[in-house]
Amino acid sequence: MSGTATLARCLGAARTFGRGAGATVALQPTDCEVLAGEHIAVVGPSGSGKSTLLHLLAGLDDPTLGAVEWPAIGTRDELRPGPVAMIFQGPSLMPPLTCEQNVALPLVLAGSTDREARERAGESLARLDLAALADKLPEEISGGQAQRVAVARALAGTPRLILADEPTGQLDHVNGAAVVDALLAAADHAGAAVVISTHDPAVAARLAVRWEMHSGRLTTSAASEEATAWSR
């Protein structure tokens, strides 16, 4: 992919929690990069460092060693709202706001008018078949529905880099597949990269590149044979 823009990269980035004898190394020194348009699955057992890696790439946490850069995006202060979207493992909606308001909020913070934000929020909810939930509060919908609304919120801002931490973990197979479809379609439409951490082989098989994490170490970065077969 010579000449392709580098959206994010780790330069010997590592993350340790705690100090002394009680310290836990969540991520060993890691070198990696995410290029524009890439579809990457991050796989590995629980506690292997997948979430830590995604949080560093999203600029939500600081490495205790090394550095994280966003060459084609800018400084950390320019990541959100807009260029980088993070979808968390569990629902992260604001309880006092309706689903539509939750999706619209980042757009308003990015400078959209209320009307523009509501229109784009409605379009994003409709893309995930959630239009009927627009006026519902988070407490009035299921956990799976709330996670899909969180995905709609991330997609509404047309980000250049989408980072998703187990986005289908609380969904059944049908709804999980629909969320992955929406993520990949939105990424392709915007020319964005998408990085998904997952325990689901079916989800990993949908992405062209597979990164494997073991004991805090990124051990491979290779094309996924399953994704290659899927694309044929």
Give the key terms:
232 residues, alpha/beta, Rossmann fold, six-stranded mixed β-sheet, three-stranded antiparallel β-sheet, 26% strand, globular, disordered C terminus
Structural summary, described in words:
This protein starts with 5 loop residues before the first strand and ends with a helix. The radius of gyration is 17 Å and the shape is globular. It has 7 helices and 9 strands. It is α/β, with parallel strands linked by helices and 232 residues long. The protein has helices at 50-57, 99-109, 114-127, 143-156, 173-190, 201-204, 225-231, and strands at 6-17, 24-35, 39-43, 65-69, 84-87, 161-165, 193-197, 209-214, 217-223. It has a single domain (38-59, 81-231), classed as 3-Layer(aba) Sandwich (Rossmann fold).
List how many beta strands DSSP finds: 9
Sequence of strands across the biggest β-sheet: 5-6-7-3-8-9
- Low-confidence runs of at least 5 consecutive residues: 225-232
The shape, in one word, is globular
Count of individual domains? 1
Separate helix tally: 7
The computed structural class is alpha/beta
Oligomeric grouping of the chains: single chain
Helix content: 25-40%
Q: What is the CATH architecture assignment?
A: 3-Layer(aba) Sandwich
Beta-strand level of the residues, as a percent range?
Answer: 25-35%
Distance between the termini: 20 Å
CATH homologous superfamily, by name? P-loop containing nucleotide triphosphate hydrolases
Order of helices and strands: EEEHEEHHHEHEHEEH
CATH class: Alpha Beta
CATH topology: Rossmann fold
Q: Please summarize the sheet with the most strands.
A: 6 strands, mixed
Cα-based radius of gyration, to the nearest Å: 17 Å
